[in-house]
């Protein structure tokens, strides 16, 4: 039996990183909104006209006459403080978000994480997945809690490979390879789709991503022995291409 190291369980998955970015923006935006609305309502109520006809702050502030520029305001300190605090928050948020996206771009440290490398080939209108032992399949099988690196290309036109639930997305360019990575913490079947309009069968260019427990994946991988796709998968590819081109499967 082929034994694979278990690394992905200790790695932050792209889905977790994007969820964290969303939560930080949501919480910070909500906090800023609450402060601004509360500050506005406080001053609107405090300085409202009560209909008495007199200025209750006449002896406390110096009102400008018609045509005069307002004075006072503590020398603009409030504006300076508010601008400085806002700038610090925005710059810090940009720097933190950039560091998170840089982690997504570069992936985990290869010196510590031994990733499973899979080649992905897009064609009209389906996907081929080539494993290190040469096995080719139309369904992506991966182990749970393992870093998976995809090398994506296309055999004909521009495609875009994406697994929305796992937050994976990269271009499939003819003659070039683009890379993406992910790790799935839960077993199950996810949907991979093409996100680049590539022809009449674009909407049919979907496939399953099966996340398996480690031992089940090892057993499945040991049985492949570098073989090509199974007969059912080959028939499915032919049927998909024929349907997309407006014909009937042979």
TrEMBL record:
Record carries keyword Electron transport: yes
SUPFAM superfamilies reported for this sequence: Cupredoxins
Membrane topology: Multi-pass membrane protein
One BP annotation, GO: ATP synthesis coupled electron transport
GO molecular function: copper ion binding; cytochrome-c oxidase activity; oxidoreductase activity
CDD domains assigned to the protein according to its UniProt record, in alphabetical order: CuRO_HCO_II_like_6 (cd13918)
Domain called Cytochrome oxidase subunit II copper A binding: residue spans: 113-223
Any Pfam family: COX2
InterPro entries membership: CcO_II, CcO_II-like_C, Copper_CuA, Cupredoxin, Cyt_c_oxidase_su2
Documented EC number(s): 1.9.3.1
TM regions (residue ranges): 20-42, 79-98
Keywords: Copper, Electron transport, Membrane, Metal-binding, Oxidoreductase, Respiratory chain, Transmembrane, Transmembrane helix, Transport
GO cellular component terms given for this protein: membrane
The protein's enzyme class: oxidoreductase
Gene3D superfamilies: Cupredoxins - blue copper proteins (2.60.40.420)
Subcellular location: Membrane
Stored PROSITE patterns: COX2, COX2_CUA
Family: Belongs to the cytochrome c oxidase subunit 2 family.
NCBIfam families: CoxB
Protein name: Cytochrome c oxidase subunit II
Organism: Haloarcula hispanica (strain ATCC 33960 / DSM 4426 / JCM 8911 / NBRC 102182 / NCIMB 2187 / VKM B-1755)
The gene coding this protein: coxB3
